[in-house]
Amino acid sequence: MSDQSVENSKLVHIERETWRNFARKAMRNRSFTIGAAITLIILAMALISFFWTPFDVTKLEIIKRLKKPDATYIFGTDHFGRDMFSMIMVGSRNSIAVAFVAVAIGLVIGVPLGTLAAARKGFVEEVLMRFNDLVFAFPALLSAVMITAIFGPGAINAIIAIGIFNIPVFARLSRSAAMTIWPREYVMAARVAGKSSARITIEHILPNIANLLIVQATIQFSLGILAEAGLSYVGLGTQPPMPSWGRMLFEAQTMIGFAPHMALFPGIAIILAVLGLNLLGDGMRDLLDPKLRRER
Fold first, then answer.
1. Dist. CA 238–CA 245, nearest whole Å
2. C-alpha closest to that of 62 among 85, 78, 80
């Protein structure tokens, strides 16, 4: 066996051991395991809803309206006779899709802006960060109101509004994290070797701030689900006939006295989704941040 093959074999072995150690630490982390379990259940429910739901969520059966939970309708039915469990399944799909794309928008635009500000500094940094402050001054709900006033309500506009709000969040985080990496010796050595700022950012800065971005993305994902529910509640998010957890809560508010299940189960779904992602993010922070590991 050649020296190169032996070296490759050692590297593969080291990588496997690293992943095994990470998996063992993850299983011992209570926040990570509970958050991952809740998140996986919700993701599985959303994926299954693409192929199967107990009942058709677009079919109205007034004769079965406001049925309480039983063996057939485990979460009951709403004021149109639709199965609540099926609606929550489909609603999870919409909430996850909106939150995921909104977080992706924040990452794709915010991270380059933040790393550019850290690399260039001076006038460029000042302009970019003041622009971020301006965008950050408009919450997702206010942005959605302005967008829907021009283009009308809908899931796409909700995604744009939440995504715009995420941009300064990731820009600020990536800038502050990158600023701590630029003075490091290996970065200075790369600059002396003639590497450009863009190449240093890609090869040295981004890999070293990736753990912070992953944790923040998880947190923003949970906030995105909450924001989508809030926008749908006020009629600016997902539109009928597609179910949405937020709109389900809105429709339930006038019937909560005699049909509490209409508000109970969508509310629990939102709470579990946000709780699961926050616990997952907290666990990932503990696993990925060496300082926290040493402190604990």
1. 9
2. 80
- pTM of the full predicted structure? 0.84
Instruction: State how far the alpha carbon of 222 is from the alpha carbons of 35, 66, 96, 152, 181, in Å.
Output: 11, 30, 9, 25, 28
Domain that holds residue 103: 32-295
**Number of other CB atoms surrounding residue 250 within 10 Å:** 16
Count the neighbouring beta carbons within 10 Å of the beta carbon of residue 236. 25
pLDDT digits (tens, 9 = 90+) for 3-56: 555 455 555 555 565 666 656 776 778 888 999 999 999 999 999 999 999 998
Instruction: Give the total number of structural domains in the chain.
Output: 1
Residue 53 located in a structural domain: yes
For the record, the structure tokens of 32 come out as: 């990570």
Residues in CB range of 150: below 8 A, 6 or more apart: none
What φ, ψ does residue 232 adopt, rounded to 5°? -70, -35
Contact (Cβ atoms closer than 8 angstroms) between residue 166 and residue 224:
yes
Each residue's pLDDT tens digit, 187-237: 888 888 888 888 888 888 888 888 889 889 998 999 899 888 888 888 888
The answer as to whether 3 is a domain residue is no
Domain membership flag for residue 18 = no
All residues at 6 or more sequence positions from 100 whose CB lies less than 8 Å from its CB, including other chains = 221, 224
Helix and strand element counts for the chain (H, E):
12, 0
